[in-house]
Write a structure and sequence with these properties.
Strand content of chain C: under 5%
Number of helices of chain A: 3
Low-confidence stretches of chain A: 1-13
CATH topology of chain C: Cytochrome C Oxidase, Chain A
Radius of gyration of chain C: 23 Å
Chains: A mainly alpha (112), B mainly alpha (215), C mainly alpha (530)
CATH superfamily of chain C: Cytochrome c oxidase-like, subunit I domain
CATH class of chain C: Mainly Alpha
Radius of gyration of chain A: 22 Å
Shape of chain A: flat
Number of strands of chain A: 0
Helix content of chain C: 55-70%
Order of helices and strands of chain C: HHHHHHHHHHHHHHH
Oligomer: heterotrimer
Distance between the termini of chain C: 39 Å
Low-confidence stretches of chain C: none
Number of strands of chain C: 0
Mean pLDDT of chain C: 95
Largest sheet of chain A: none
């Protein structure tokens, strides 16, 4: 976004951020978060093997998205911010995946 | 108290540019926090992958009730701070200040509950380096879990504490009319920080409190 | 008929005005003074190392003192000199000017960055001197967590603090570039130096937090006696290396990307040619910044990392050579049919291209896992990274200091001395570090204060080169300082260069531009094509 250097334009006082959220919307998100919280606790008591971790993380991601998209207003704010948020998580995933790739593929040393 | 105008810093051309830059800066900072905490999650991933059974055993001994209450507290506080920003945007400074103080109170409650947890864990001899009394073949791997437990929750609680202070400052400023519908950027940024604190916990909760519950 | 405003140097000349300034140009100078001090200290450590290595016996210092000395050298040079060097001096000064802005997005944060840097830097320095650390700048576990009897926690916490200076700078630059470009300055009209500041900022904000937490984990493990790097708990010392190098490999791109940006400016201005392949230069900067995060395992080929992970990291390390090579080809292509004058800036720039190329090519040797088995932890590696960091980054830094000296200070430096120093630096550098490639290929290990007799000749040559290099570094310090008083006053655009910074006075007024600068719609390097 390019801007004029100098002050030859009348100064705008509005900060141009997203408009106010709706009360119902915010409370609805909270309700959804609690439903997901109940779900994740319930799932934890069902033996699903590796499915437990997958379910836990999936529900956590869902909750995180709710908070980011609605409470943190990613949906209604500048698109660049979504890229910033995604980038942080993407590089964390790189760290974890590449590190685990080493750990998982190690072959025990042959001992004579 | 609805006519708070922005203090336009001299490097910016207009308030809109100032908000755009400030919000971008805050989001980049939040991304750095994701990577900062992420290291601990990487350590957890490693430990869980290699010592899953011991981690599950260790996970059973965290306090699920307190953990659930803490999660509920933080989720609610996230909603309240979002409503506080909304209130300021609608010109309701007084209501906003109350909401902010409630958020700070919930944050404090979170810390108090954590304190109970820590005290309990100390009593049970589950604090690596300080008071570790577990024995058995899986005890070393459980110590790895609790090292991560205290590191993650410790750093997280530090961030909560900072957030509580920031929220109180914002409540004071809101009460004194610093913010209004046309400008409330510092409040927005503080709310974003608080949401990050909640976000981290959203991932911490299942990993530390829901592990091994079905055993 | 507006009053010409005073220059940024003239506004408020008490010490206090400097210490509470929000002016990015003054903050740049604050940084420059500090990093010069750190460079001198790190250089003294280097001299001690080279002195010890003149003889095969460990006669100058004990093994542990030697370990502390190279740790001092690494910590100071990497974190307190190289990483802040170009971004916090030239970057701070030039970024707003180059995009036509009045300052960076967050001036107070900028000043805070400097104070955090100074605080962490001085604290670490005190700890390094008062007993020091002998783990190497790499802090490998389990030595750093369990066996070293030195001030690991203190030094690590100092570095932890300085990391936040880096992060805040990165945040500031990204926000500035996104939101404060003057009208007409679209993304693909930005000078490559600005693109390099963007790239380096991306790396700073994504990598440095990982270092911070990794150092914290080392500190916690030392304090608690247990930790995730402890095999007795089922932890893994190699996990430290993964976390450490996830930062420290991108860190080397923090150190080289700004140099590449500087060199693009020097070559285009000196040869009076537009850059060849501007868009590819941009993509290469971004490509290096991103790919740099995928190659860290090449530091761990012999550490116990899995063979398959090593293969993956090896292939990726080969791939990352491509954008760097593209840049080298484009610099050379830019010179083709240019008016090449061997002024100081051009000597530095050409020196960079040649030395960076050698350093980069030897990186390919090291990226090949089979070769790395023999070459790792030898002087081959030491030579490789010094060719890039010193032959590359330091020469580009000095080239940039000279090129923009008139703009920053309003004075011209003595050109003859500048050329002599640059040439001496090139010669002294090669004499110091080329023998080290041979030593490493012949098997001399790094980080040892003594060595077998057969390595002595090359070591003596290397130390001789180091003394020439020391003189070559002292020269600019002398004549640049001299020029502050006695140098000819500089015109606004002594090099007749393109770029918005040359459209304002030398030195600029506090708010950079009296009238909004004119952006060239054609190209940032719209020199006459020869």
């Amino acid at each position: 976004m390019s801007n004029v250097a100098g002050h030859d334009q009348p100064q705008r006082h509005d900060d141009d951020g997203p408009p106010p959220s709706s009360l119902g919307g915010d409370l609805g998100v909270l309700a959804a978060l609690f439903v997901l919280l109940a779900a994740t606790i319930a799932c934890a008591f069902i033996p699903m093997g590796v499915g437990n971790m997958i379910a836990s993380l999936a529900i956590a991601v869902a909750k995180a998205l709710l908070v980011m998209v609605f409470y943190m207003r990613l949906k209604r704010d500048a698109p660049l911010l979504r890229i910033v948020a995604a980038t942080g998580f993407a590089f964390l995933i790189v760290l974890i995946v590449f590190t685990l790739a080493d750990v998982i593929t190690r072959i025990p040393l042959l001992t004579s | 108290m609805n006519s708070a105008t922005a203090r336009l810093a001299e490097q910016f051309d207009d308030v809109s540019q100032q908000r755009e830059a400030s919000t971008l800066g805050m989001w980049i900072f939040l991304a750095t926090e994701v990577l900062f905490f992420g290291v601990l999650f990487a350590g957890y991933a490693y430990g869980h992958l290699l010592h899953g059974a011991a981690f599950a055993e260790a996970g059973r001994e965290t306090d699920l009730v307190l953990g659930t209450i803490e999660t509920s507290v933080l989720l609610t506080s996230s909603c309240l701070v979002a409503l506080a920003v909304r209130a300021v945007q609608l010109g309701r400074q007084r209501g906003a200040a109350v909401l902010l103080l409630c958020t700070a109170a919930l944050g404090t409650a979170f810390l108090v509950l954590h304190g109970f947890e820590y005290a309990h864990e100390y009593k049970e001899g589950l604090v690596p380096g300080l008071h570790w009394t577990q024995v058995g073949p899986s005890a070393p791997y459980k110590q790895l879990f609790y090292f991560l437990y205290f590191s993650i929750t410790g750093f997280h609680s530090l961030h909560v504490s900072i957030g509580v202070v920031v929220l109180c400052v914002m409540a004071w400023r809101t009460m004194h009319g610093h913010f209004g519908p046309s400008w409330h950027t510092p409040l927005e940024l503080s709310a974003l920080y608080w949401h990050l604190v909640d976000l981290v916990w959203i991932f911490v909760f299942p990993l530390l409190y829901l592990l091994g519950r079905h055993g | 008929m507006s009053q010409t405003p005073p220059s940024y140097l003239q506004e408020g000349q008490r010490l206090r005005d400097w210490l509470v300034t929000r002016d990015h140009k003054r903050i740049a100078i604050l940084y420059a003074v500090a990093i010069t001090g750190f460079f001198i200290l790190g250089g003294i450590a280097a001299m001690l190392i080279r002195l010890e290595l003149i003889t095969p016996r460990g006669d100058l210092m004990s093994a542990q003192l030697y370990n502390k000395t190279f740790t001092f050298h690494g910590v100071v040079m990497v974190w307190f000199f190289l990483i802040p060097s170009i971004p916090n001096t030239l970057g701070n000064f030039l970024l707003p000017l180059m995009i036509g802005a009045r300052d960076v997005a967050f001036p107070r944060l900028n000043l805070a960055s400097w104070y955090i840097y100074m605080g962490g830097g001085v604290f670490t320095l005190v700890c390094l001197v008062a007993g020091g650390v002998d783990t190497g700048w790499t802090f490998y576990t389990p030595f750093s967590t369990m066996f070293s009897n030195t001030h690991v926690i203190l030094v690590a916490s100092g570095v932890f603090v300085v990391g936040f200076s880096s992060i805040l700078t990165g945040i500031n630059f990204i926000a500035t570039i996104h939101t404060m470009r003057v009208r007409g300055m679209t993304w693909f009209r930005l000078p490559l130096f600005v693109w390099s500041m963007y790239g380096v900022s991306l790396v700073m904000v994504l990598a440095t937090p990982v270092l911070a937490m990794t150092l914290a984990l080392i500190m916690l493990e030392r304090l608690a006696g247990v930790g995730i790097f402890d095999p007795a708990l089922g932890g893994d010392p190699l996990l430290f290396q993964h976390l450490f190098w996830f930062y420290s490999h991108p860190a080397v791109y923090i150190m080289i990307l700004p140099s590449m940006g500087v060199v693009s400016e020097l070559i285009t201005a000196s040869a009076r040619r537009r850059i060849f392949g501007y868009r590819f230069m941009v993509y290469s900067i971004l490509g290096i910044a991103v790919l740099g995060f995928f190659v860290w395992g090449h530091h761990m080929f012999v550490s116990g990392q899995s063979m398959y992970a090593s293969m993956l990291f090896s292939i990726l390390s080969f791939i990352i050579a491509v954008p760097s090579a593209v840049k080298v080809f484009n610099w050379v292509a830019t010179l083709h049919k240019g008016q090449i004058v061997f002024d100081a800036a051009m000597i530095y720039a050409l020196g960079f291209v040649g030395l960076f190329m050698l350093g980069g090519l030897t990186g390919l040797f090291l990226a090949a896992t089979a070769l790395d088995v023999s070459l790792t932890d030898t002087y081959f590696v030491v030579a490789h990274f010094h060719y890039i960091m010193v032959g590359g980054a330091v020469m580009a830094y000095l080239g940039g200091i000279h090129f923009w000296w008139p703009k920053v200070t309003g004075r011209m430096y003595p050109e003859i001395w500048a050329r002599i120093a640059a040439a001496m630096m090139f010669f002294g550098f090669n004499l110091t570090f080329f023998p080290q490639f041979l030593l490493g290929a012949d098997g001399m290990p790094r980080r040892y204060h003594e060595y077998p007799d057969r390595f002595q000749l090359l070591n003596v040559l290397s130390s001789a080169g180091a003394s020439i290099l020391a003189v070559a570094y002292a020269l600019p310090l002398c004549y640049l300082l001299w020029s502050l008083r006695h140098g000819a006053p500089a015109p606004d655009n002594p090099w007749e260069a393109r770029g918005l910074e040359w459209q304002t006075r030398s030195p600029p007024p506090k708010h950079n531009f009296v009238e909004p600068p004119q952006v060239d719609r054609d190209s940032p390097y719209a020199y006459e094509d020869a």
